[in-house]
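A quick aside before the break. I want you to see a complete sequence-to-structure record at least once, exactly as it would be stored in a machine-readable document. Don't worry about memorizing anything.
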Amino acid sequence: MFIIGYFLNALGTVLDYALFFYMWIVIARAVLSWVSPDPYNPIVRFIHNLTEPVMYPIRRRFPMGFGGIDFSPMILLLAIIFLRAFVVNSMLRMAASLM
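That is the input. The structure line, written in tokens, reads:
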């Protein structure tokens, strides 16, 4: 059983780092929306291509654009914080009980 515990520990740690990295990409996307970046810049396109598949369904389900303000990054950040606090910690706790 300790092998499953180590596997869950590693998986939880990798998931935590991936969610943390994605959270900063969403923050960068929100900051880029405040300025007018060059849409052909490779970094801007990379950030847009990573975040748009997740943010578009949020915008479609929660049309909360008041005065041109997009709240989908905030909803996505709250979801990432929830996943890091609940799912990752549950996996790490389960891994600790199996080791």
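Two observations worth writing down. The mean pLDDT is 90. The CA atoms of residues 49 and 74 lie 18 Å apart. We'll return to this after the break.
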